[in-house]
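Handout, section 4.2: multi-component inputs.
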Amino acid sequence: SFELTQPLSVSVALGQTARITCEGNNIGSKNVHWYQQKPGQAPVLVIYKDSKRPSGIPERFSASNSGNTATLTISSAQAGDEADYYCQVWDTLTAVFGGGTKLTVL
Amino acid sequence: QITLKESGPTLVKPTQTLTLTCTFSGFSLTTSGGAVGWIRQPPGKALEWLALLYWDGNERYSPSLQSRLTITKATSKNQVVLTMTNLDPVDTATYFCAHRDTTVAGAFDSWGQGILVIVSS
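Output:
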């Protein structure tokens, strides 16, 4: 089965740039979606189809996908960006989520 | 505006069957491209996809749980029901339903608030 690997945690200083990776075999050939989940809340879609932002998501959120790694980039990180982030793809008609990354804004 | 809400029991005994209902508004499950999925999250752990029901009635299941899951459209056109058999304490989790659409390349663009289900005797 297809697997997605994310770092358990990433830390970023307030106002700096955070990068969260999602690794999978030839993930660049798939559409990658990213979700933000704050404690006690449902996930929120922040990036779909590798790099597209849904309406209402700040431009500070961007992403790329190539080869075996997809990357979510959060520019000018704010305290409100502190959350768990999950990548997700579809593989042979099944949804696969990464293990999630806890972003800490220092 | 799309909204979804999960309902069902919050405490289930081991070996019992769990039935959860997702009631939604803002879209029709008969519209081409739409789908409703179920995703769960054990306390402190990652998201795990369970099942998906397409607008055309096709179903998809997590390979590891397929034998225990059934996803169906309820009598009401705005409800999707997930059934999971033979519950075990490891099935304790928050269960979410979510809208999936091809306009966002199959991402889950709207989620319910989730329902915490505890499996315990």
